[in-house]
Amino acid sequence: MTGPPVDRLTALDRLMLSAGRRWPQEIGALALLDGTSLFDPAGELRVDAIREAMASRLDLVPRLRQVVQTSRGGPRWTDAPRFDLAEHVVVRPLPYGTVEAGLPAVAERLYGERLDPARPLWRIWLLPGLPDRRVAMIVRLHHVIADGVAAMMTVTALLGGPLPADRDPRAHDDPGQRHAGRNGRAWPAIRELIAARPGPRTSLDRTVGDGRRLAVIRHSLDEIRAIAHAAGATVNDVLLAVTAGGLRAVLRERGELAGAAVVPAYVPISLRPPGGGPPQGNAIAQMVVPLPVGEPDPGVALRRIAAATAERKARPHTSLDTLVRGGPLGRLILAAVMRQRVNVATACIRGPATPLCLCGAPVLDAVPMLPLIANEPLAVGGLSYAGRFTIGVVADRDAYPDLEVFVAGASAQLDRLGSSARRAPA
Asked: pLDDT tier at 273 (50, 70, 90 boundaries)?
């Protein structure tokens, strides 16, 4: 008589776990709630009711009750011997006088609090203390639990939203195919990773340290779509063009633009099939997109990016799990990838079109927060949610002391793209 199947970590999951010992590998979000319904008559946050509501949804995301256990056959997922939701959903009142503009600084400080590997690798901070009874919320999931798409599904389920029964393969957050090709068919995509021209030697090429900075750019989703439509591009292409504008500003300010006409960026490709099971694990490939930071015209830059992503999306891709599974080929590929000097990562995630609610409290806004790793000290995430498109910029504190320059350049790029789209014929 055989027991239940052993739920072992994939090679990619093991890589995420080991990398997390040096660089926190957590996907997160900074959210803002209308907390009117979250306080009792005495003005205290009803945290027990919030935990009870989340507890009723945990069966939809069983990974949130599990820990990684070392075993002879390799690490595997197992139910936590002791699970207390109060250790994962915690209240941290904000200092008196904190306003919404100060929330990124709060998130930066909390980013330094590491998750306990002896417990399930996630945490939610509830942060009361904002004006008008608004409540901030920071969500963090270790990358070993979920990739970007699965993390969005997890948070949606935990807050009471529906798990999508199917996903439209044309979704704007999906820059590639939703199936993994065999290594042979995927060789053009693999060759792209290992044989592409390395990025320029600039001050962007720096090993990630401990400190983090967070910045936010907000925009209307309808205008982002209009920009994409006018250029024959996707929402993901617009995010890449905005990133290029920010990097152009940084390199120009640092006097390095002349030697860096193109900067490569990593873009994840979701391989999660429609209706692809529970929201857990990592099902992604990776493509490298050249960002034309030397191009002063934002419209031209966007069209060049759209052409580059279209070409790369047409190739079969294989999961990163295949590349890191081991063996001589896997080690050769990983070594070659590290030599490419790709120093920026982006991700575009599609969230719910209608607002989520926590115990009746609408989630007004959500800012994505991506992890940093190795020599990638900048990560730019875009999240569409309830008619908004919010860009969360996470940077290594030492590599980007001038993060304001990046934000100003990215915002200016977005404004110019928007003006061009409004002038374009219908």
From this structure: confident
pLDDT tens track for 87-129? 999 999 999 999 999 999 999 999 888 999 999 999 999 999 9
> Rounded distance, CA 189 to CA 195, Å?
10
User: What is the distance between the alpha carbons of residues 136 and 30, in angstroms, rounded to a whole number?
Assistant: 7
What residue spans define the domains of the chain? 11-158, 187-352+367-423
Angstrom distance (rounded) from CA 298 to CA 7:
47
CATH of domain 187-352+367-423: 3.30.559.30
The alpha carbon of residue 194 and the mean position of all alpha carbons in its chain are separated, in whole angstroms, by 23
The CATH superfamily label for domain 11-158 reads: Chloramphenicol acetyltransferase-like domain (3.30.559.10)
- 91 forms beta bridges with 126
Question: d(Cα 163, Cα 403) in Å, to the nearest integer?
Answer: 36
Residue for token digits 């940084």? 250
**Per-residue confidence band for 255, with pLDDT thresholds at 50, 70 and 90:** very high
